[in-house]
Amino acid sequence: MNSPLPAIVVMGVAGCGKSCIASAIAAYSGGHLIEGDAFHPQANIDKMSAGIPLDDNDRAGWLVRLGEEMQAISQAGTRPILTCSALKRSYRDTLRCAMPGLMFVFLELTPDQARQRVLARPGHFMPASLIQSQFAALEPPYDEPLTLTLDATQPIVALAEAVDGWLKRCAEHSVAQTA
After folding, report:
1. Does pTM surpass 0.85?
2. pLDDT for res 179
3. Which strand (E) or helix (H) includes residue 115?
4. What is the pLDDT of residues 50-75, one digit of tens each?
């Protein structure tokens, strides 16, 4: 099922700014923000809070649930904008199965930048000690379709404008192909 407006996943390691950027995209381009962290089962939160990285099995049900949430938002006629680390291609493919035509915005930054940001972020269950494991699991989506890679250190407004421009170019290209 395709959404009237394509669904977007804002992805990257902890600290890259997924929530801030997704919120700005929703305000700038329209859409319903889905905060992926809010859908983690308590066992995942407990594990990360203890400094233990999640594995593929921990993420499997969570990714299915995120796909279902995007489907529900799309069926209501609104663009889903999901924040999700989506570190591995297999995770992104799980989400793509739920939402054909799914678009990804990859917020890229260095391990040191991510660590600094996570250390400065109060009250989140993801400790800075897990940054290394996130980069170890990361399979950057450089060669994947419908993916935009952005420098996560750029200002939020500039990133939201870049995504909005990309969405418009993709929509124009899609219309041109069907004409």
Report:
1. yes
2. 44
3. helix 111-119
4. 888 889 999 999 999 999 999 999 99
- Collapsing DSSP states into helix, strand and coil, what is residue 147? strand
Domain ranges of the chain: 8-178
71, 24, 94, 168: CA torsion to nearest 10: 80
Q: Take residue 17 and report the two structure tokens written for it.
A: 């700014």
Nearest to 118 by CA among 17, 21, 15, 36: 15
* Cα angle 166, 155, 23; round to 5: 65
CATH code matching the domain that covers 8-178, chosen among 3.30.360.10, 3.40.50.300, 3.30.1050.10, 3.90.1720.10 = 3.40.50.300
Phi, psi of 89 (to 5 degrees): -60, -40
Give CA angle at 68 (5, 131), nearest 5°. 95
Q: Which tokens is 8 given?
A: 């977007």
Could you tell me the CA-to-CA distances from 142 to 13, 46, 105 in Å, in that order? 15, 32, 11
Distance of CA 157 to the CA centre of its chain: 17
Question: In the predicted model, what is the mean pLDDT of residues 78-107?
Answer: 96
Amino acid at 51: G
Instruction: State yes or no: pLDDT of 176 exceeds 90.
Output: no
